[in-house]
Amino acid sequence: MITEAGKRPSLAPRNWGGWALVGAVWLLGKTPFRLGLWLSRPLGFLLRRAMVRRRAVAQRNIERCFPERSSQEVEALLRANFVALARSLFETAWCWSMSRRRFRRHARVVGLEHLLQAEESGRGVLLVTAHITCLEVGARLACEAAPVVGVYRPFSNAVLEWYQLRCRFNYAHGMISKRDIRSAIRHLKHGGIIWYAPDQDFGPAQSIFVPFFGIQTATLEATHKLVSLTGCAVVLMFPVFDAAEGGYVLRIQSPLRNFPGGDAHADLARLNAEMEAHIRQAPEQYWWIHRRFKTRAEGEPPFYD
Fold first, then answer.
1. Can you say whether the dihedral through the CA atoms of 156, 160, 162, 164 is positive or negative?
2. Comparing C-alpha atoms, which of 95, 102, 94, 87 is closest to residue 140?
3. pLDDT tens across 237-247, in order?
4. Quick one: pLDDT at residue 179?
5. SS3 for 130?
């Protein structure tokens, strides 16, 4: 079922915290673009100091995924990652409030023809991406270019949930909760496009282990099932903040050939390899603070102390 924004929550005291957060997001969205980029640096420094546990997770992830890097290089990448995380706060707020005309001044799409050709084939399209810090920018660019429905994680706070849906419906053609796999299957079977970011740890019951940065990683099996059950095309897209351009580029690749190939392990390893190749191009812009390697294969020691 496509999620609806629903009725605006009341101003009752139980919702004051949510409304305060919404007000903060709204204010961030009004920040001038260049000022937001500049503020991301001191804010990134503050986040790195304040988010002690997340900083330790990010450092562990970077050290294991880039074993060839020295401690100084790891520290430099960690600092850059928190700047990108700080920038993502502005990016999300800009996506939720900025007009299309103003938004497109700072972003462009490369390879849109691949998505449009896949859509014209009559099959559904699973538009797969990774948790890049400018993820929302990629989502908005894709949704404005084609009739894309997003798979998302609902907020437990009623006000934030209402606000994110209200804002996303300005560019998305619908939203489906990540818990509602049946609606995703139905939409793909009817030839729809679904935007999907499966690169997180969903636990052993929903995952199989395949390599990611040379580490046996719990990888969501539902990705393979969605394609197998619906016969949809799989198109990869990756957004990136390009400092040289001073803006964003969304790169959409041609549909994967011979996917699925019949073996879930091989297919998911192929997807992970594609994501890894992109992440390596701008490693500071990946969501390293996520405990991506928390679930371990049998016999493997804990990844995080």
1. negative
2. 95
3. 999 999 988 89
4. 83
5. coil
